[in-house]
Specification:
Radius of gyration: 18 Å
Low-confidence stretches: none
Distance between the termini: 24 Å
Largest sheet: none
Number of strands: 0
Helix content: over 70%
Length: 213
């Protein structure tokens, strides 16, 4: 099942990425953008800010402290969450710089690669907020499976908030909603490769408290 799931997500992600590169989303993006009212209420701001880098730093710290207090070590799910966030944001940043889709209302920007890297947030595709929210939804669905519909409603709300803020196109958030579970699945399925390296590193740094059960 995990292999089948990964293949399905890979196929979906590839289809959306190719469609974006070929400009097949252009008309749909503009159409949805024109239909979406600009809304920046307090509630929408709270939803979108809940998927910011700062918010996620707090989430990670809280789950790490919870694991250590309960088991004196990290849980494997928390570690997978942390690695998924790191990998997901690396992919988001790379795609933003490589594809360089301007955000709605912004002009195309031609910059040298390293300067573009420093200004990666100027570009729209894909949505970092939505990618983080979908990774969090995967993590919470694994940790608290009873509430899985709630976690995915949250991720979709974050995606919708980015459209309401007029800072992303439809294709940006659709790609990121798929990217999150793809990254989480890849991280889980490659544990046998990176987990031994992580354990060696924590041992050398004498940070055994951050080892996993």
């Amino acid at each position: 099942m995990p292999l089948k799931r990964r293949r399905m997500l890979t196929a979906m992600l590839t289809i959306v990425l190719v469609a974006e590169l070929l400009g097949l989303f252009s008309n749909l993006n503009v159409y949805i953008y024109t239909l979406t009212p600009l809304a920046k209420s307090l509630w929408i701001a709270l939803v979108t800010d809940s998927a910011s880098f700062g918010a996620f730093a707090i989430y990670v710290i809280l789950f790490v402290l919870w694991d250590i207090k309960r088991d004196q070590k990290l849980s494997r799910s928390t570690l997978n969450f942390m690695v998924s966030i790191f990998l997901g944001m690396a992919i988001v940043g790379a795609l933003k710089v490589l594809i360089r889709v301007p955000r709605p209302g912004e002009a195309p920007l031609s910059l040298p690669f390293f300067q573009a890297l420093l200004n990666a947030d100027y570009f729209a595709f894909p949505s970092g907020h939505t990618a983080r929210a979908s990774i969090l939804a995967c993590f919470l669905s694994e940790r608290f499976p009873k509430y899985k519909p709630i976690w995915w409603c949250y991720a979709i709300l974050v995606a919708f908030s980015r459209l309401l803020f007029h800072v992303h196109w439809f294709s940006d958030v659709i790609f990121s909603l798929i990217l999150g579970p793809w990254v989480f699945t890849v991280v889980e399925s490659t544990e046998s490769i990176w987990l031994p390296l992580y354990r060696v590193l924590t041992k050398k740094l004498r940070l055994e408290v951050f080892d996993v059960n």
